[in-house]
Every structure is written in C-alpha cells, then in structure tokens.
Design brief:
about 150 residues, mainly alpha, about 65% helix
Length: about 150
C-alpha cells in the first residue's frame, strides 16, 4: 500500500522513517529497530550478544559474506577448521530455533552459552594467529626487497 494514501486517510499517521518537527531526536527509532521487545527477545539477549560476536569475527577476520553465521561460513576466504565449522553451524541452528519458536527453550542454556563463548574465543585466536603470520610474512618480504 502506498504510504501517502495511508497517511492521508489516517489522521496523525506518520511513516516510521519520517521525522516530524515535534519529535525529539532521542525519540526517533530507526526503521530496522523493533519498538517493542517481547519478553522472549529480552530473555534471548545474552544468546544474541555472543552469537553477534561470532558473526562479526567471521566477517572481519575470515572475510565471510552474508546475513548470518551459516552464510558467512559458506563464503569465508580463510577456511575455518572443520570441527569448529560444524560446532558453529550447530550453535547457529540452536539460536535460530530458539528465536523462531518462542515456546522452545535452549536445553542446558548455560552450557550452550559456554560453548558459544569458547567458539568465539577459538575464532578470535585463529584470526590473531593468521594476522600475526601475515605480519611476519610482510616483514620478511620487505627485508628481501631491500626495504
């Protein structure tokens, strides 16, 4: 439906992306944020935080592209060890199921969170080692070229 038709038919209606002069800057919510957090989403916040770390490390340190952990693992430039890849896919699948089915509880939630933290630490460690090796290689090549 055309937003201009809705706004003319509904008094006081403003599309979420519009900023009205009466709005204070702190009250404006970007369109991608939810205005209401359900209790389910509040309970999932710790899971979302740790899996967001995994997601960003895959993008930053491994060159993964895509919207989630699965697609980033499929597209990484620097391969993730097979065992860690399987573990990350399992953790992402559990997270997705918990988000999409509000009645489903993560079994052994604390253990799940510990597994997520361990996987994130492992990814960070692998990324740091790769960066260190690349740095040493650049220094070595600079010495060879006379720099």
């Amino acid at each position: 439906m055309n937003p201009s038709l809705v706004s003319s038919a509904t008094p006081g209606f403003r599309p979420r992306g519009d900023i009205h002069p009466d709005d204070r800057a702190g009250d404006v919510i970007p369109m991608y944020q939810h205005t209401v957090k359900t209790p389910h989403m509040k309970a999932m916040q710790d899971v979302l935080d740790i899996t967001a770390v995994i997601d960003s490390v895959l993008a930053r340190d491994f060159g993964g592209k895509g919207r989630g952990i699965h697609s980033k693992l499929d597209s990484v430039r620097h391969p993730v060890p097979a065992r860690l890849d399987r573990r990350l896919r399992y953790l992402a699948a559990v997270r997705n199921k918990a988000l999409n089915e509000p009645d489903w509880e993560i079994p052994q939630r604390e253990r799940y969170l510990a597994e997520c933290r361990a996987a994130a630490i492992r990814l960070l460690d692998i990324g740091r080692r790769r960066q260190r090796r690349a740095h040493l290689l650049r220094r070595w090549l600079a010495r060879l070229s006379g720099g």
